[in-house]
Amino acid sequence: MMYSKSHLCSFSITNCRAFYKKFYKSIGFLFFFLSFSATSATESQISLIQQAAEQHILDNIESPVGGNLNAKAASIDSRIFATDCPTGLQTSSTSTNPNASNITVLVECQNDNWRVYVPVRLTRTGPQVTLTTPLSRGQIIASTDVTISMVDLQRYRRQGFSTLDAVIGAKTKKNLRSGEVIEENDICVVCRNETVTIKAVKSGMVITTKGVALTDGSHGEQIRVKNSKSNRIIEGRVTGISEVTVVF
Question: Which residues are the signal sequence here (predicted)?
């Protein structure tokens, strides 16, 4: 059944005004929706923006040695404005910290004058020495006690070891569980009060002697040792299992 304008408003002036108010409001909302939809990003454009942000991380953040770097862009609101950028998307970020869990990447189209900030989550996996069996404090680590496992380096922030040779022959300083990543503070490569080999290096010549470590030490650390022959206390750098090198 068709109704004329006069028929629709015939019941009262108040109702007539309310009818036209709702009618024009609905028309206005429809035009707004159509205009908004026309400028919103498409699924393809959003996907390209995310891929550009992820690739920026992979191109500018160094992967861990022997491991992998994965970048995952966050979801993007489809209501953003974007275009099929004719000059290609440009990316940049203020951080290149490989240890960060998240880095925000700016993706922009300078030609069409729009930009989007995209948070990207980083996952870094790398080789770390882990135990295959539980060890008690004071035990010497054997080759059968350890293996190399790929671990999430973002969750594991402590200093560990990436090669088996770095821990085999070392002594545990506390009880350790099977499957646990070995940290530098868990072992002593050179242990306090134990006999060590002192390598004295001067002008390309190497002289070795025995000594006693006065402190615990890990690879690369500077520690104090006592020469067993001269009783002289010197400082050297830990360069191997029960080995300290002194450069003159």
Answer: 1-40
